[in-house]
Amino acid sequence: MHFWVNQPNVDGSKTRIQANIYADKQKHTEGIKELYQSVRLFLPTDMEVIKSFPEKISWLTILEVWNNIQWVDDPYPYRLTVGIGKPPAKKSELHFMVDAEDYDYSTKKYIELWHDMNKTIAVPIGKWFTLEYYMKEGNAQSGRFYMAITP
Hints:
Strand order of the largest sheet: 2-3-4-5
Helix content: under 10%
Number of domains: 1
Radius of gyration: 17 Å
């Protein structure tokens, strides 16, 4: 699959290529309880230029899982995002990051529950790799998230 973006379309500074997968609400009313996926990815060497972007990158999303969506007033809206980011620096490696948020209907804002960026392993650019992840719905004790990359 190949996608090409010619111009930004979100706030004039970023863009989106998106595929939506929805559960049949008549049959599956409880949302996603567990999810596992393994995907082969190739990020082209053109992405090397992003390393020189002088500001922080926090919105290069690879995967976003919504469990209960706020735009239809589902109770307990939640999203988990896996992405690529970098700190604000003249030149910096790209790293994988993950965060989880819920939504506060009273303030109409997302609330970050947790966030992590692996700063020891750089995102492989110009070579194939496997991205594997697992998530299990739950609280601080019972919820799980696992992610690995392999050549």
